[in-house]
Amino acid sequence: FVRSVLQNQLLQSAKILNECHNQMLSNFILSAFDWARQVQVTPLRLEYVKQKEYELFNRLLAFANKKQEEIRLLISQTMVEMREELIRAAVDYDIFRKSFSIQEDNSSVDQYQLRHSTEEIQNLVLALLNKTIAEKLTCSILSLRETYLGTLQRCLSSLEKAHQHETHDTDQLAAQDHYSDTQRASESLKQIVNAAYQVQLNVKSSASFVHSMWERLHQFLRSLTLPKAGTFPMTPTEWKTQVAVDLLDSLSDNRLARVICSQFRDRLRQAHVAFLDSLRELESVHTGRLEKNEELFLRLRKILVPRVARLALESTSLKDMILYGMPQLGRELGRGQYGVVYSCDSWGPVAEKGVRCAVKSVVPPDDKHWNDLAMEFHYSRMVPPNDRIVSLVGSVIDHSYGGGASPAVLLVMERMNRDLHTALKMSLTWPKRLRVSIDVVEGIRFLHSQGLVHRDIKLKNVLLDQEDRAKITDLGFCKPEAMMSGSIVGTPIHMAPELFTGQYDSSVDVYAFGILFWYICAGHTKLPYAFEQCQNKDQLWQCVRRGTRPERLPCFDDACWTLMEDCWAKEPNQRPLLGFVYSRLEAIFLSHCHGRIVDTGM
């Protein structure tokens, strides 16, 4: 009873520990994904913001250059339409009670007071005129707001918020300074926007380009001749009417249009220059941030994630050992560089279903291989069940192996019938080979849909079941793109040229499939002639770098050969997407296996 209770407590502890390890590992990998996305997206966002702002600036500048006549007509029409309304507003304005009093007998007034009151009437009339003209100008270019501003502002905001989030936990004053610096680009963009269509209706505001028109007019109005000090010649109503009429008559629609366009262009250029300066600062900030964090995320990918993955492997193995015990190894099925594969009648969660298992026994010689094995185990466990991927059942660590000096990791997986290398040696029929090629593409597509790159597609990593349907195995080199640190991995003949540079993506699997498809179509496992001449692995790599590819055999038809050539294209962006590869393989399969082309026994 005590043993049972203690074992149950140990199991619960192992489960909790395993959950913690897996959660930490998932968080680390998601952080790596976020970092990789920032590295790719940030330069694109900066370039997009620069391009869109430049387009907006040119469109607004063209508007100012080409629309002067339209603006003149708009001003002229507005002045005619509002003339009576402006005169009434001037008459109704109660200025005399504020400034000075005029008696009905037209007694003498001070010239300074008269000038001051005249300016107030002029300001009132001009403010109302400015408001109407500004509203009509705004309506004439609102389409530019819809075309440029939405995505541009959101993109710029995301760049500024990214840096603000980075400095959130720093000193408050320093964070405010950083925030102020990174917000300058948005403020400069707002100035461009403000110059274009966010016209301030307050005539005293310096943010309005219509105010620039008023300033010019204000200087002109100061030169108007006013009555000399002495007798006031008319009633207050007549005087206010005359001031408004004189003002409206003195305005020139041509001159106003030139002033508006000139001021608009000046403000637009100033805002554009300020925006470019601010964007350069923002770009410098992000470049520094990415460089600063690059070492941290390199350590995350190469050290922290593998260590946590190893802990997760150990806790999972402990849990499986408590639940299911040590798997019973049967006959040897195969042997590799670091491990041996054994048969196993049944084990673990699939024991009740009577599913046959295979046990891959691996003895990692050092910490690096331990970490690689742990990562293989993690990615194999995280992949959802799929008919084209060999499923992993569980794992156990045998600490008694080699007298306890070198523990062996036993990876228990579903058992297959044979690998593709063996099947080709045993003369697998052509229709079945085509079906296998389609299965392999389905498996690679599924891995890519999970964000994983296999990086070692080859004959021995494709296993066949009793019905000769294929599944992909050995995820030892499989990684998410975000976790790939540029290491050179894979089997030389299947390795894409860019793998040797350390800069590659998921298209390396498309290249590897092209080589695999050559073997499938050839129906044998002999090396292509060009590679068979290479004396060693280094020569083989040099041939691949120079563009050497397998030769065309007489048994290849045009459709199969063209597909191979497309898949192993030198430039990654010239290789077809796996969806297109799948469609072309289906067409080849239908044409060869449904009577349109007679099977030649390839």
Low-confidence parts? 98-108, 168-182, 196-211, 224-231, 596-602
Structural class: alpha+beta
- Widest sheet, order of strands: 3-4-5-7-6
User: What kind of assembly state do the chains in view correspond to?
Assistant: single chain
Number of helices: 17
Average pLDDT, rounded to a whole number, is 77
How far apart lie the N and C ends? 65 Å
Strand content: 5-15%
Query: How is the main sheet built?
Result: 5 strands, antiparallel
Overall number of domains? 3
Q: Please provide the ordered H/E string of secondary-structure elements.
A: HHEHHHHHEHHEEEHEEEHHEEEEHHHHH
Counting DSSP E segments of at least 2 residues, the number of strands comes to 12
Shape: elongated
| Helical residue percent band | 55-70%
Radius of gyration (CA) equals 39 Å
Task: Characterize the structure shown.
This protein has 602 residues and is α+β, with helices and mostly antiparallel strands. The chain has three domains: 2-300, no CATH class; 326-415, 2-Layer Sandwich (Phosphorylase Kinase, domain 1), CATH 3.30.200.20; 418-602, Transferase(Phosphotransferase), domain 1. It contains 17 helices and twelve strands. It has helices at 2-66, 68-92, 111-140, 142-166, 172-182, 184-196, 209-222, 236-250, 253-324, 367-382, 420-425, 430-449, 507-522, 529-532, 537-545, 558-567, 578-593, and strands at 108-109, 230-231, 332-335, 339-344, 357-362, 392-398, 408-414, 418-419, 452-453, 462-464, 470-472, 479-480. Strands 3-4-5-7-6 form a five-stranded antiparallel β-sheet. A three-stranded antiparallel β-sheet has the order 8-10-11. β3 and β4 form a beta hairpin. The two termini are 65 Å apart. Residues 98-108, 168-182, 196-211, 224-231 and 596-602 have low confidence and may be disordered.
